Amino acid sequence: MGKPIAGPTYAEMLNPAALPELEGELDPRNLFCISWRAPEGHIRHVVLPRELTGVEANIVVMTGCFFPSGSHKVGPAYATLMEGELAGEIDPAVNTVIGPSTGNFGIGTAYVAKLKGYPAVVIMPEEMSAERYERIRRYGGTLDLTPGSESDVILVLERTEQYKRDPRNKVLAQFELLPNYRFHRYVTGRSALEAAAGYGNGRVAAFVSAPGSAGTLAAGDEIKACFPDCAICALEPRECSTLFNNGRGTHRIEGIGDKMVTLIHNVLATDYVMRIHDEDCVLGLELIERRPAALERLLGLAPGALHRLAGLFGVSGLCNILGAIRTAGRLGLGRGDNVVTIATDGFDRYRSVLANREQRLGALDDATVDAAFARIFRGFDAADVLDVRPLAEKRRLFAYKEQVWTGFGYTLPYLEKMKSQSFWDTEYEAIARIDQKLCRVRAAWDC
Predict the structure, then answer these.
(1) Quick check: pTM over 0.85?
(2) R_g (Cα) of the chain, nearest Å
(3) Which range has the worst mean pLDDT, 56-70, 121-135, 382-396?
(4) Which domains does the chain have, with CATH numbers?
């Protein structure tokens, strides 16, 4: 095996000791910047104004746009590649990296592959935002586009199976490989706990995230280990409510709603499923990005009060914010309570999406802003929330998982193990051994 470019351990992604001086975006030392932590030491996040959210609870939003490549998805991409190298399964002198994705994981795959010296192919649907494709090409990735949009990701998985026939292709399979779970449970989960510690009672009352691969939801496992009463709420498009009621359909929230229960989704830890209307997310993003002054007037905020939010959120981030607000209302959370959620990426890859919205539905005026805000940020339908804590609901979600993943070669005995929390805890505990091995290998490379 060749000498791969060294990268961080899981512990170093949680707590980088000292970030390096960099020589541009494609400096390989950017691998050591894969972290929620800013150079100053704090976890990157914002707390939304109560005037905006309309709830008493603190809505804490962790901001992923500051990660290398512009999204926290670069973390699971790196972790999966790193673990494959340590296992002797992936070699930059031999292998091509394959990244099945609907966007951000594919961007992260192309980026990490570029920094570590691998050719990369990203498989994704053909109807995603133009900015996603541009970014992948900028990092030297080759695109293989499948028919459809976000909710046709099953076609991406089927195309991935074709690549697996050539042993030189190594798939960073975000929907099924456990490094994705490990990264988010350890790095995102512990970062979420730290971000919330400075607000209210310092606890996390709820963690809210829309599952794409469901990796981000693994942060909830770590939060529950600290605060067992924390409610974990999974969000999905009302137009494609697979977890909610086996619904199918197309939607406009890129990065989530993939018509499946992913293999790495620990449904044992999910307490609620909530449906969010896709157009609410797109229009909500437009209000924050394009009409902040109108919102400030409407909410009685000082001019410029919302400008600090500019650029921090994408469409799925707005989905998570709306879900966090509605979760706080649904649970009756008060001023001392904290709800943590995630903005996977920033606005930079959604300008074309807002342009498409305006072309379809017309431009906003002040009257439209007021009505849209009331509907999006103050509207809530209790029928859009499903309690999935009952055993019958867990069985239903496991049945969905088995239906998909036995078709991709996973056995029922293996899937049965996932019905025990001990399976997930054992996978999580592997982090210590992985970090120790990576440190040994890096020391050998330096000799």
Answers:
(1) yes
(2) 21
(3) 121-135
(4) 40-69+189-387 (3.40.50.1100), 74-173 (3.40.50.1100)
